[in-house]
Amino acid sequence: MYDNPYGILHIYYLSGRLAPEPEDFGGAYLGNWEEDDTSFLFFSRPAPESVDALLAAQPHLSLIDTFQMSYDQWQGGAIEPQAIAGVVLQPPWVDPPPASAPDAVVLKLDPGLVFGNGTHPTTADCIRALKAAFSRKPAPETILDLGTGTGVLALAAAGLGGRRILAVDLNPLATRTAHRNIAINELSDRVLVVRGRAETFIETSADLLVANIHFAVLQEVMASTGFDRKRQVVLSGLLRSEARTVENELLRRDFRIRQVWRRDGTWCTIHATSGAKPPL
Ligand code: SAH
Description:
This protein has 9 helices and 14 strands. By secondary structure, it is an alpha/beta fold.
């Protein structure tokens, strides 16, 4: 049994990035989310002494604010099992697993503190788009997941039949979380998680690219020659006007748009196949 390890989160919002991350932050330390030149340190108990010691040791850091909230508030609601296009995302602390359809793909997912718990419309539509991508012949065998977050789409790709999956994220807390999720599903022989930039890893060859990522990053990814070599692409994280730009660029690059999922009048997810190359 795997207990929900998250109760009240004690969050310290700092200006600057930790360099290096202290080796011993105590047992209450959950992780650090870095964004631009700021850091959010998460603890399961108040940790003013640990943070004071850090600020004294690394004077380039300063405390901007502190917050407390429940894990469910942080996640935008309690994390429940969810079924999306035949893929069931199961929090490991919910025991026993719910009854699911006999051919359902059941995956354990501990979102921890990073993006990708399955409730965001872009994540859910990416799973629907992955299902569509895997139903085409030949089915994709190698998959590149750029901006993996919790690893949710890499896991779904493995569950749907992917043989070799590379999951990439810039953020160390995301790669740690994704790595743990791959391990609890015993999929380490098929999914490799690496820390790095999507803009670099797009050159890795793969049958299928899935990227639920900021538009600015996606534009750089699409500008690469590695992008053109993907047989199928699932692109998300796009607002309506951004999606139009991406669709035009896909057509210009000889891709065929197979389906676009539009959610809440806001979020778009695109599935396209390369028109330029004959299938294997
Ligand atoms: N794939 C998950 C998470 C998407 S959130 C899902 O669909 O739910 C987007 C992720 O992209 C975040 O984890 C963020 O850290 C990562 N990211 C942002 N910019 C990046 C970049 N340039 N290279 C790699 N990862 C990046």
